[in-house]
Amino acid sequence: MKIGITGGAGYIASHIVRDLLESGHELVLLDNFVTGNPQNVPDSDSVILVQGDVGSEPALDQFLAHEMDTVFHFAALKAAGESMTDPVKYSANNVRGTFYLVERMVRAGVNNLVFSSSAAVYGAPQYVPIDEDHPKSPINYYGFTKLIMEQNLEWMSQRTDLRYASLRYFNAAGYDIHGRVRGLENQPQNLLPIVMEVAAGMRSNMQLFGRDYDTRDGTCIRDYIHTNDLSTAHILAMDYLRKEKQSLTVNLGSEQGLTVQEIVDEARKVTGHPIPVEDAPRRPGDPASLIASATRAREVLGWRAKHSDATTLVESMWSVYKGAMQ
Ligand code: UFG
Predict the structure, then answer these.
(1) Contact between residue 171 and residue 226 where contact means Cβ atoms under 8 Å apart
(2) Probe residue for ligand 1, chosen from 190, 203, 208, 263 as the CB with the greatest number of ligand atoms within 8 Å
(3) Ligand 1, residues 283, 293, 313: which to mutate, most atoms within 8 A of Cβ?
(4) Which end of the chain has fewer beta carbons closer than 10 Å to its terminal beta carbon, N or C?
(5) How confident is the model over 233-280, as pLDDT tens digits?
(6) Is the pTM of this model over 0.90?
(7) 227 vs 320: CA distance, rounded Å
(8) Residue-range domains of the chain with CATH
């Protein structure tokens, strides 16, 4: 039975693609290459590529024409700041695309969906660590798109044979520790790839948004989770859906907080580059601290983060970015 992967050439999906191929699966990838990188599509007889948009009905029909029992749905835009200035783009890509996909999956009898959700569904934390029962009150439109899709999945799973795993990622980072994924993200907007671009000479400096937070060094704390750890969780979630035939919503985080300054310091150490930092005002909508409780993922999936310490995160990214040095 094949596995379908939307956004299959994207940053996170390309790690899962490698792991699934190595365990002998046949894959159908759907990607429009807007943010996905063609370099990430493995040259393998076990991979079929459908080039198209998840919001395009013909592309979805072509994708689902292949016999599959599970879809991993990664295709989405993910820049929270941009979602506030261009919500229509996020509505069209994230919301409409997912609604189409789910409708078509149900009609085609493809019943297992592993969905890339986000800690952005929680909004400003009322307490940390954040567990899955924390109130859901997104503070950016991106988080709203993920929440509304989760709610749609809940309804659909009650009224149809669809089962889903909503995986709420905290801050995804790192590159494949086995060196199998080397395609860089296009115009990244997250901290770690920006730090790496400075170290590789692709930009001259970076801005650090806010040093006056109530944290150990005044900069924001985030829970960074390595893509290899995310990959393991996705495969466990697929196995859970197939075996237990029940839906699931879990946080995926390391349960460790790192400050922005700690990330910059680690990157200076690993890369040997001074990484010039310009202090900038707080970025609107940034909470001081976001840390996951991953208890449910541990209990239900037997999963825990193994590669999400600062050194592994930065070293694995640098092994890819140093190849792009200018
Ligand atoms: N930061 C900087 N300079 C930069 C970029 C980021 O100082 O150039 C800081 C931010 O202010 C923040 C931290 O680095 O304090 C992390 O910022 P990111 O933009 O990398 O990530 P966010 O925490 O804002 O959001 C990320 C994803 C969201 C997801 C969220 C879940 O982009 O999609 O994690 O925790 F919802």
Answers:
(1) no
(2) 190
(3) 283
(4) C
(5) 999 999 999 999 999 999 999 999 999 999 999 999 999 999 999 999
(6) yes
(7) 14
(8) 2-173+224-252 (3.40.50.720), 191-222+255-325 (3.90.25.10)
